[in-house]
Structure of Agmatinase:
Amino acid sequence: MLKANVETFLGCDCPADEARTVLFGAPFDSTTSFRPGTRFGPSAIRHESFGVETYSPYQDRDLEDAHVLDVGDLELCFGSAEKALGDIEAQTEEILDAGKRPFLLGGEHLVTLGAMRAVAGRYPDLHIIHLDAHADLRDDYLGANLSHACVIRRCWDIVGDGRIFQFGIRSGERAEFAWGRDHVTTQKFNLEGLGKTVEALAGKPVYFTLDLDVLDPSVFPGTGTPEAGGISFEALRTAITLICSKLNIVACDVNELAPTLDPSGVSTAVACKVVREMLLAFPDY
Amino acid sequence: MLKANVETFLGCDCPADEARTVLFGAPFDSTTSFRPGTRFGPSAIRHESFGVETYSPYQDRDLEDAHVLDVGDLELCFGSAEKALGDIEAQTEEILDAGKRPFLLGGEHLVTLGAMRAVAGRYPDLHIIHLDAHADLRDDYLGANLSHACVIRRCWDIVGDGRIFQFGIRSGERAEFAWGRDHVTTQKFNLEGLGKTVEALAGKPVYFTLDLDVLDPSVFPGTGTPEAGGISFEALRTAITLICSKLNIVACDVNELAPTLDPSGVSTAVACKVVREMLLAFPDY
Amino acid sequence: MLKANVETFLGCDCPADEARTVLFGAPFDSTTSFRPGTRFGPSAIRHESFGVETYSPYQDRDLEDAHVLDVGDLELCFGSAEKALGDIEAQTEEILDAGKRPFLLGGEHLVTLGAMRAVAGRYPDLHIIHLDAHADLRDDYLGANLSHACVIRRCWDIVGDGRIFQFGIRSGERAEFAWGRDHVTTQKFNLEGLGKTVEALAGKPVYFTLDLDVLDPSVFPGTGTPEAGGISFEALRTAITLICSKLNIVACDVNELAPTLDPSGVSTAVACKVVREMLLAFPDY
Amino acid sequence: MLKANVETFLGCDCPADEARTVLFGAPFDSTTSFRPGTRFGPSAIRHESFGVETYSPYQDRDLEDAHVLDVGDLELCFGSAEKALGDIEAQTEEILDAGKRPFLLGGEHLVTLGAMRAVAGRYPDLHIIHLDAHADLRDDYLGANLSHACVIRRCWDIVGDGRIFQFGIRSGERAEFAWGRDHVTTQKFNLEGLGKTVEALAGKPVYFTLDLDVLDPSVFPGTGTPEAGGISFEALRTAITLICSKLNIVACDVNELAPTLDPSGVSTAVACKVVREMLLAFPDY
Amino acid sequence: MLKANVETFLGCDCPADEARTVLFGAPFDSTTSFRPGTRFGPSAIRHESFGVETYSPYQDRDLEDAHVLDVGDLELCFGSAEKALGDIEAQTEEILDAGKRPFLLGGEHLVTLGAMRAVAGRYPDLHIIHLDAHADLRDDYLGANLSHACVIRRCWDIVGDGRIFQFGIRSGERAEFAWGRDHVTTQKFNLEGLGKTVEALAGKPVYFTLDLDVLDPSVFPGTGTPEAGGISFEALRTAITLICSKLNIVACDVNELAPTLDPSGVSTAVACKVVREMLLAFPDY
Amino acid sequence: MLKANVETFLGCDCPADEARTVLFGAPFDSTTSFRPGTRFGPSAIRHESFGVETYSPYQDRDLEDAHVLDVGDLELCFGSAEKALGDIEAQTEEILDAGKRPFLLGGEHLVTLGAMRAVAGRYPDLHIIHLDAHADLRDDYLGANLSHACVIRRCWDIVGDGRIFQFGIRSGERAEFAWGRDHVTTQKFNLEGLGKTVEALAGKPVYFTLDLDVLDPSVFPGTGTPEAGGISFEALRTAITLICSKLNIVACDVNELAPTLDPSGVSTAVACKVVREMLLAFPDY
């Protein structure tokens, strides 16, 4: 039977009514100040996912058994962060309305704000777990307050003090770190204390935002602003399994893959494996 | 409404029952002897087609008005040319059975043989127009007779003398040129005589096979075996418009784009434009 | 004597009070819809200019004799086209105030609008010569009216009918071409008629905007949206020499080099040579 | 004296009658399902070996003292795995007939099967040590049973249960792991237990097959299917020294380097060092 | 105010009379025997430094408070090592004359010799700390004694026995290691003993030369001769902080970044961070 | 029979005593001022020659009938132009002593001088045909008189006025062009007048030096200093056939391919075809 070509992330073509998690891409990088290219992240993850297996020997689970639907990339307006965020928020709303978990693939980290706006409206008690190399706590950047460098600060505008838990942070302005001390919980350089945070947030609604540059650039070179001194793949794999299996993740995102900066393809392969392990770790996979 | 991601060549998502031409990809390059990578050609053409416009100022026609469906890539067995050709033949049969024109995107040139087998079975009077840098007339290559270097010879096995018209040929073994003189019509180096050939074949069923390396490597660097001294884009554009608008093209293919050898992306962009112009040139577009 | 490192385009370090032309860069590509990277254009042109000679055997003139100052790149806000355009306009104003000719290096084509706003304020009779592959006449693009794809339409908002002369255009929506017929003069595909246009505009103030993708991608692959079928380097060289030597060019720009898409460096080299030839062609060089 | 150019792996031009180990390359990757390019592995290793020293500070031995001859690459038929394996088997036979140790450079992992067939015929008690990221235990892959993804299963067809010892495996189908539990010894993720295996196999004839993707992609990005979570260079170096110095290695191979996916060249450099350390570790070096 | 474009390493535009450290580049790689490209190192470090922050969360110091001036790259004669070294020596002299600390950015490692000649003339008791993958102790290389492979041997010609302390060395000829045992202190493979060396050299004038290939290629792929088995970024970061903060560093250099071999840009990013951390660690920063 | 691997340019493994032309490589680029990499030219040409056919449909001749031996690359000292030139001269002498025609593959253009010194000593009446984008007539460059930018001037030192005929020149200092007018015959931009020059030099001993950057960068991007506005492949092919078939070419060279700047491989493919056509054009092929 002849029909239009369907392309989804590996094994994520579950019928809409059975899906529990919905993947969608936000190919946006207009506020990226240094090296753009994360706009190509979601389609690269989708396209290259066929290089990994559906089965995880770590979790002994298989995407063939999972309930995930990949609805593809949004068509976003370049040059207007506000419009793009509006479209991301609307898509997130639609997924939440359908009773499913939104799983957003960026794009630059600013896309998180679009999803967060939708999610925070439904979960007044929302908490955020944030893995990243960069604090992203600036109030504005070169005159813009909708910038990748400000995204967690904008999330704080919504959720307020004591709700944001950062790990792996190793880069930022002096002022960001100073401001952060009073408003968010920041673990510099590594993931120490993550276990305790997971215990403390048990049962609460959690938005999990993963900037892949938390990984060391040796593991994940394909990103706009690589920061030496990051965590290993094994550390990240253990952390995401813990977070996604033990917490009530109401929405999540994975972002900052820039395939154009990844000529060997290893970063895209890492991103695919991270997405697979997250999808398989959800209790309702 | 949430549904699985659909990706087609630009504007080619016509409902199946209205489609007149059906695009499909054969991501196969196992017999490529020099530099592989054409397996990535069809998906690159599909993916990058969004960088060209649907409208052609050359023909004043628009893909938005065309009746084309892109059904995606076959999943082919690597390492067995015979199995891969069987799958291509079957897909071509299905499209012909549906009363539509098959438009195959390669892959290496050998994929033509799969489509040809299906088409030749229905059109005993089939003729072939072949644009290429290479004669592809070897009887075998390193012991294999199913090889990209033998594909037109294999087509000749089916259609016989006097049915094959080659243009742009500028590379081959001494023996290929010698053999060719008795069995096919070969225009070396350029497209001279194409107009007369088109006149002569008027009304007859024609399979049109386009190896993009007929273009000069300055225009189309992204191919496994670049051969300096090829034709210009404008020469090719004029030729394909002539062939597709004036002849009874019952099936066709475009092949030998190797995106991995095209870091600037210009070759993929050329391939997209070539496909667009061919699709728009068909009288029944 | 120890002093901070100065870097300018080859030979363009004339003292400010002697300079007649002032080069500046606008490293902006936030509205680029397909493949970003032109933000790196101005610094690549500056940095790689040392690969060309100061002397032009075409014009028998030497940059060592020219009166040009390169003041470097603006620091622009990413993610807000309006803010970026404001900064470009301000810089252009400053150069005009000093009685010098602004020469802007993009960046994506939208940057032209910033410079145009400043120039048009001073020259009510301003005309525009526009060399490009793309018409850039959309009224909006994906919801944004400040987009690279709309830039000439925005210029038309300022100067009105009969003032814009386009050459080399070979891509656009059907609607753009239709709209253009009533409002601008468009030469499709090539530069025919340029000589007459130059004669007709003799003595009038002219803004010259050059999108380098007017060149064929074989000559200039390093750009976001390559369009096969463009003009040759020799055609462009002759045209820019004519335009810059015969007309009253009150400001100009050269844009759309994306060095990240130019791994061999040939596109940057072409851009450097184009800038050199333009600088040397001005009667008051 | 003028003579035809000789190129061998660094320092491996020992006269044939004195050689104890014979290097040869099998530039084959036709069954590679994801990203081809390992066909260029052997020549890259040979060509880039001049970037490493002949002396190993780890073992305090020098290739200048070793007895190794590099006879170059086979010319293999692309598109027919069976023919290619036959040629590899024949070359291995010839080396064994000459009383020397075959050392095969791939190519994709399937090439191992050609060498194994020759070796197993002479050593009925043959055991296999297999370092890899992938289990390679499928019975067939997309309809082919001669596929890189099936190579260890095909070796098992020859040697049977209890003879194959896998280490570092971190990717495969669910079914492969299940089958493997009954037929081979698999150490997942790392090299634990290698010391005991080496003790247990003391004195027995061993074929050592090394798929370089057992290394973490940070160390070895240049391979078709990178799998995050692999072993470090130091872990591999220690292991190969142990295996080659303590066991009776009757033949061995190193495969899956894809230089086209290694733009910085680090993977080729790793491969060269691995080959050097293996060659120097043999007791009869 | 219009003035010629100034470009310096991030935040290093301190007025000359206030500067305590002076950065300068030596873009030279003529004696590189394997893969050239380090000539582009200094400008890449300068240009890409805007991707890192001025603030170090490791040291809680900020380049905005530092007293550093970047005077740019020397224009060196290619093809004559002696002339190039003379120019480097002269620049170093000028900086020393001004009472400032020279901080040289290479280029290949041979550039160290130019700076060393100037420094050794002023500090008869000079010691050298040398971090590198390669011993660089050859007396000559392919007939040249001014070669990157001989640079530490040439330094030894000046300072003599017992003054040079090498760490991380994992590559060299057998003869180099043998010679080194009698003349320099070499720690193979890692940085063990660095703490004791720093204690022993307290108060003495020290030249610190850092060949970035001491890092593992996974961390720093962008160098001419990558050597697997190197140290981690964290090990290097700790070491340079110790060396620069505890010792009397009278001059230093960082070399062997080859940006052309670093398509993802991670190596340049590492180099920028290393330079930042060194600049901030000096007691008089 | 096991023997060390032999690698030659396609089909050029003629026994030494039967060879009429001897190919050898000079992998040297130490004086290259802009972008190095031509050192990899000769081995790339040799290695990639297997992508072209032995048969030329242009000349209807086949390398299988030719008498050519490829003796491989010299091992040259980097960092000393004088030593490298000495080795090239010695190799050229040896070939001339054997009564064969030296055919040198560069490398940067300076290598010509080594061969020229040997040849000029035997042919007092030697003339030079020089195809290039650059005049190469500087007396010194950045203080060095042995530089790629001076090579034809150095040849003039040997042969004197009226013996050198340049074609295609489109770049140089003002002073070079001025000097050249009195001492050499320079055809700017194209090959006009080549036919007459060939007639005039009939029977005289001629050294033919071909800098491949005479080609337009669209045809030949892989070179250190690309200069837009060059000649087409067809123009070059015709010219080299004329020169090599009609003149008494006593030695020749082809240089300035930089494979590292040629990611698509088209430039190497062009160089291979140029070498093949030259070898087949010699009357005594």
